[in-house]
Amino acid sequence: MFVMNNYFGLGLDADICLDFHMAREENPNKFNSRIQAKGYYLKTGLRKMMKKGGLKDFTRDIVLEVDGKRVDLPSLEGIVIMNILSWASGANLWGHEKDDKFNRPTHYDGMLEVVGVTGIVHLGQIQSGIRSGVRLAQGGHVHIRMNNDYPVPVQVDGEPWLQPPCDITIIRSALKATMLRKRKSKIKRRNTEPSVYFPEPDDDSKC
């Protein structure tokens, strides 16, 4: 059992995240800045783009069900289940385009968005804001059956590992987070400064 706060990745994005994690564990001194980290992500992406095979068509062995309904999967190299719209350093994987098949997602609607990634080029285009992911489904209960005969990279909120074939169920937690928001009207502050009271002297006390 694990707790997912923001997103769960299966396939390509988790594979890159796993490579980054292992490289950082081996040489932590090489990842002292954000620029170095982004540079390694870029180098890893280029290397995987040149590599043949990999996770291509891995979704043929994946069964995805959302709210009890099976979702037909196109040819993909990655699947991401999101609880928020910001993904991978601020990219909008869901996109801004209107689609009558789906509701406009918000962070408080209790729904999860399921999005697909077709490859490393598509991933780079999403990061650049040129394209969005492949919208697959929305729902509150996601079930994934991995029928692959090999372990597949997965990641939860940036924590990656290799997952052997299994069933994965993602459900809404009963716990609710308290969110802060700005007030539209200004709050009038009470005067909290101490006041000093000087009583007037009685006639008997006058000299």
TrEMBL record:
<dbReference type="GO" id="GO:0005524">
    <property type="term" value="F:ATP binding"/>
</dbReference>
<dbReference type="GO" id="GO:0016020">
    <property type="term" value="C:membrane"/>
</dbReference>
<keyword id="KW-0863">Zinc-finger</keyword>
<dbReference type="InterPro" id="IPR016064">
    <property type="entry name" value="NAD/diacylglycerol_kinase_sf"/>
</dbReference>
<dbReference type="GO" id="GO:0004143">
    <property type="term" value="F:ATP-dependent diacylglycerol kinase activity"/>
</dbReference>
<feature type="region of interest" description="Disordered">
    <location>
        <begin position="183"/>
        <end position="207"/>
    </location>
</feature>
<dbReference type="InterPro" id="IPR000756">
    <property type="entry name" value="Diacylglycerol_kin_accessory"/>
</dbReference>
<protein>
    <recommendedName>
        <fullName>Diacylglycerol kinase accessory domain-containing protein</fullName>
    </recommendedName>
</protein>
<feature type="domain" description="Diacylglycerol kinase accessory">
    <location>
        <begin position="3"/>
        <end position="160"/>
    </location>
</feature>
<dbReference type="GO" id="GO:0008270">
    <property type="term" value="F:zinc ion binding"/>
</dbReference>
<keyword id="KW-0067">ATP-binding</keyword>
<dbReference type="InterPro" id="IPR037607">
    <property type="entry name" value="DGK"/>
</dbReference>
<keyword id="KW-0479">Metal-binding</keyword>
<keyword id="KW-0808">Transferase</keyword>
<dbReference type="Pfam" id="PF00609">
    <property type="entry name" value="DAGK_acc"/>
</dbReference>
<keyword id="KW-0547">Nucleotide-binding</keyword>
<dbReference type="GO" id="GO:0007200">
    <property type="term" value="P:phospholipase C-activating G protein-coupled receptor signaling pathway"/>
</dbReference>
<keyword id="KW-0418">Kinase</keyword>
<keyword id="KW-0862">Zinc</keyword>
